[in-house]
Amino acid sequence: MPGKSGRVTLEDVAKATGFTINTVSRALKNKPDISRQTCEAIQKKAREMGYVRNYIASSLRSGRTKTIALIAGTMSNPFYAVLADVIQREAFRLGYSLMILCSQDDPEMETNMVNMALSRQVDGVLVIPWSDQSPAMEQLRGSGVPFVVLNRFLGEDRDDCVLCDEENGGYLVGRHLIEAGHRKLAMLSHRDVLFSTRQRFQGFLRAGREAGLPDENIIYGQSTDPEEIIRFLKRWKEEGVTGIFSFCDVEAWEELSLIERCGFRIPEDFSVVGFDNISGYVAFPRPICSVDCSFQEEATQAIDLLRNRIHHPELPPQHVILPVTLICRDSCR
Length: 333
What we know:
Blueprint: H1 10-17, H2 21-28, H3 36-49, H4 55-62, E1 67-72, H5 78-93, E2 97-102, H6 107-119, E3 124-127, H7 135-143, E4 147-150, E5 160-164, H8 166-179, E6 185-189, H9 196-210, E7 218-222, H10 226-239, E8 243-246, H11 249-261, E9 271-275, E10 289-292, H12 295-311, E11 319-322, E12 325-327
Parallel strand pairs: 1-2, 1-3, 3-4, 4-5, 5-11, 6-7, 6-8, 8-9, 9-10
Antiparallel strand pairs: 10-12
């Protein structure tokens, strides 16, 4: 029966099983000094009684909450949603709760989200900052709370970070388009994303140079305005561009609809390649070629790095660069 608080406590389980509170506590944690038979009997009774571990009490004793925060842009972006989902599974596997906080890629909101995470006494933070000049990053560095930067390199060696090989990803896209027969290419991005945009275009340009294409055959365009993107597409068609590298799959999907709105065909008029392989996780009517940056490996590496930082704060910063592969789905002719 539950105690006066209405919650089943360790003391209640101890009374029901005849074991001490310490034995019950250790059995529920599968400690090796408690026999397997005893652990199973105590755990069975605890389940029957509706016992739920009190993590607040545990955190007061241990000084750790077993909670980590993920601060990302917005869950309306499938990239963040898929990444958060994979991180959630990996965190749960290791016994952590995950708090997801959305910055909306806004500096003030990002600072508020850092404050919220710190006020909840999280053990660590995974963060995708909007800028290398973000005030929130300075706040995190000054807090003493372990954190790992995801999908960004902030230009210095002072932070732990995990990201994919952006430059090689751009190179794979360029080579893929060139091998498909394209000789004039364009990269299209809706906005300049910290570190990533430059690295991807650099790799894209490298593939063109390696194939002997002049630099003027590798074009870059950037806009969030659909009408301006349509103007890009029409001008590029006149200039002989046939292969397009979209900054990410989400943008590629929008661009596919704009290409068709112009009366152009895919892949006959324009071939399109995306980046991040969201289409491997989210169903979309039209398959596209894309660079896979391994969400699962990123989640595993990020949480391992964060746990290592939690337990060994004296270690030097670690940088993990994940390999990328290109997945072909016939959106290139």
